[in-house]
Amino acid sequence: MLEKNLISSLKDADGRRWQGIPSIARTSKGTLYVAWGSGGTVEPEPENNIIVSRSFDDGKTWSRPELFIDPFGEERAYDVCFWMAPDGVLWCLYNVSDRKKQIYEIRAITCGNPDEQYPRWSHPRVIDFGAPFSFRSLKPIVLSSGEWVMPVTWSFRKEDFSPFDAENSSAQKLESYVKFSSYFPFSKQLEGAAISKDKGINWELYGAVKLPPWSLESCIFERKDGTLVMLSRSEAGCLWRSISPDKGQNWGIPERTNIINPSCRYDIQRLKSGKLLLINEFDPAKRVNLRAALSTDEGESFSEGLFIDGRYGSTRDAGVSYPQFTEGENGKIYMVYDYERQGAGEIIFASFNEKDVE
Predict the structure, then answer these.
(1) Counting Cβ atoms within 10 Å, is residue 29 exposed (0-12), middle (13-18) or buried (19+)?
(2) Which of 221, 300, 319, 347 has the fewest CB atoms below 10 angstroms from its CB?
(3) What per-residue confidence (pLDDT) applies to 14?
């Protein structure tokens, strides 16, 4: 049965002007972590920061939201992502940008005692793979061969770079590149995969997939035959797909899928049962019709699924959006999403079982 609970809204947000883009993780002992973006008057702004809340009773009640990550100066923190690594360490991945200093990077902090009252977090470190611009939004995955793979949006920031050159499989540090006045590289934006063979100590970036405008926030899953599939949002009214035959080192030319999406973040992961679970806004233009759907054929088709929320806000981007989920040790699905970031400003928790989606 679908159960929903409001974690926070702007009515009780201690003066926050907007909030959204949430992430969720669950420890093996059942502690739930949810974090989201806020700070300043809108996003993106230099004042953007990250808020966190925890639940110790399976999502029934939540701790008072508190400031979690707030970099110095004009460094903007955004698009937080919680991820439980196989060794039980909780990772918090987030993006940082500073237009004046030309910083566009991914940072990480980790916690080895996430169930305790006072969790101890490591100092932030930059995940550096040589790309002058990079950010990510969705969770890493662990391949059947043991590597960790993380979807990354990135750019060389070089005017004459051709994304389908034969030498484009790995990002390299460049001597000269174009500076950006925006928070995004737009036409120079590429999609790829960061791969770690030593449990997150070092990462290497592969792939330079060129997609239609405003394509980002990719998600990667591994098929049962070992190939990787990268799905990406776009302004084309659907998700796009690129396939890697070699564990993410090379990626094919992208193609449209029949998965409807209004250019908004979604989430897809493989469940313990072996099925793929997709949580997505199934509308080509509006952030409405948030549903969970299952696939038994490796993502080629999806069930009608479970209806979660259909509200639509006052503007195109103000409806229900940015779902993210995790599967508990108990097989239960735990998810978060936002609604009307600058209006109601709701951060919503929901839970259900796989059988509810069938």
Answers:
(1) exposed
(2) 300
(3) 86
The secondary structure of 279-343 as a DSSP string is EEE--SSSS--EEEEEESSTTS-----EEEE----SSTT-SEEEEEEEE-TTSEEEEEEEE-TTT
The secondary structure of 193-255, three-state, reads EEEECCCCCCCEEEEEECCCCCCEEEEEEECCCCCEEEEEECCCCEEEEEEECCCCCCCCCCE
Looking at the structure of the chain, the number of domains it has is 1
At residue 180, the pLDDT reads 53
Given a cut of 50, the residues of the chain with pLDDT beneath it are 158-178
Q: Is the dihedral of CA 250, 254, 255, 257 positive or negative?
A: positive
CA distance 80 to 338: 14
Name the percent of the chain in helix, strand, coil, to the closest 5. 5, 45, 55
CATH no. for residue 139? Answer: 2.120.10.10
Mean pLDDT in the chain?
Answer: 91
200: tokens are: 């997150």
Closest of 313, 352, 320, 354 to residue 337, by C-alpha: 320
Expressed as residue numbers, the domain containing 15 is 3-357
